Amino acid sequence: SRFLNSPGAQLLGVARAIADSWADAVDARISVVTGGITNRLYRLDSDRPTLLVRLYGENTEVIIDREAENALFARLSETGFGPTYYGRFLNGRVEGFLDGFRALEPSEMSDPHLRQLIARCLAEMHGIPPLTAEPQLWSTLRRWMRLAQGVGLVDLEGAARSLEQLERSFFVVGTWAVIQAKYSPIDFDYLGYARLRLGRVRS
After folding, report:
1. What share of the chain is helix, strand, coil (3-state, %, to 5)?
2. Angle at Cα 85 formed by Cα 83 and Cα 89, nearest 5°?
3. What would the pLDDT profile of 141-176 be if each residue is shown by its tens digit?
4. What are 22-41's pLDDT values in tens digits?
5. Mutual orientation of helices 190-202 and 156-168 as an angle, nearest 10°?
């Protein structure tokens, strides 16, 4: 059906500007994709590759580093691990739509066959070279704690102490990885993981 409203026309305009295969599109079918918790998601269908247009939720950049997120998404797309990354615009991103796929239900994740497939996919994902060698977890958590100051709903001093204890626990995780490297039959770079964890403790 033809877009007769402004939001639909804007979505089509974004698709035409970013996805080369949509450059001359004059019509599309649009549907809302449910399940997003920080974004509004729209599926665009036509006689060309189906697109997903992701509109970032208001103020979500306070929590999510959109530059890092888009760089990671592009890397996953380049390696064939994620959907096609067409490009970004001011408040969103255009992606390929994974037709025929769905998220696993929690009950399905305990299926022995699916567990093996999940493990293989995770191993493949962890084999992709990272964008940066510096872990982002602790800096992100500290940034969130700074943002939470003044809200008065949590004990930030206590949370800071817990964060320090958690960071120290990386020594335990690193030691576990060294043991796994020697005894585990799983094909995984446990020593590399141990160096990362123990190196973080030293820093």
Report:
1. 50, 15, 35
2. 140
3. 777 777 766 655 556 666 667 777 766 666 667 767
4. 999 999 999 999 877 788 99
5. 130
